[in-house]
Design brief:
binds magnesium ion, binds adenosine-5'-diphosphate, about 190 residues, single chain, alpha/beta, globular
């Protein structure tokens, strides 16, 4: 079984000096993988380019090394998969497959608003995995804005309630690493 990371980066390749808002000790603790053992979640928040996907992949790589099954999906890929299953009357099987990985990474929540159907499918997935297996979620939006993403404040609250019950949130406040590299190359003046 493949984790399907879009690219490979490790936690060792992450420059913590560049991102002082991140607590290294908290990351070292997460890298110890007890959150996976306990089926707790990790939510990584912050603006574009601050390393959310890098950290999610880095934790995913650690989990693979520790022998856990891991699956990486963007929110868009997840939604295509669930909506297709729903329309083909095999949602149950699809949800079961998505509960199987000990770590499911869902990348990029917040860039695209969800339809009502998509939001309710997402909710069903979160309910299924709750207390069973870990989610690592990245988002460019703060929790306050999740009502908008899910097009329904009540549903967003129900989703957050379960996601956050057993979870660690990393709130990255720093500058974009992509822009830093451009600036270094003299592309931004
Ligand atoms: P985000 O998902 O928050 O938009 P990414 O994780 O895609 O950001 O990071 C953008 C690029 O910059 C990636 O190639 C990533 O490996 C790199 N990067 C970001 N932050 C750091 C960092 N602190 N140290 C090393 N590389 C970083
Ligand atoms: Mg990203």
């Amino acid at each position: 079984r493949q984790a399907r990371f879009p690219w490979l980066k490790t936690l060792d390749q992450f420059d913590f000096d560049f991102q002082p808002s991140l607590d290294r000790r908290q990351l070292r603790e997460l890298a110890g993988m007890s959150f996976v053992e306990r089926a707790h979640n990790v939510i990584i928040l912050g603006p574009p380019g601050v390393g959310k996907t890098h950290l999610a992949i880095g934790l995913g790589v650690k989990a693979v090394e520790a022998g856990y099954s891991v699956l990486f999906l963007t929110l868009e890929e997840l939604m295509v998969r669930l909506a297709k299953a729903f329309h083909e009357n095999r949602l149950e099987r699809s949800l079961q497959q998505l509960v199987y990985p000990k770590v499911l990474i869902i990348d990029e929540i917040g860039y695209l608003p969800l339809s009502n159907l998509e939001a309710s499918l997402f909710f069903r997935l979160v309910v299924r995995r709750y207390e069973r297996a870990s989610l690592i979620i990245t988002s460019n939006k703060s929790f306050l804005d999740w009502g908008e993403i899910f097009n329904d404040p009540v549903l967003a609250t129900a989703i957050l309630d379960r996601l956050l019950h057993y979870s660690t949130t990393l709130n990255i406040k720093g500058e974009s690493y992509r822009l830093k590299e451009k600036r270094k190359a003299g592309l931004l003046g």
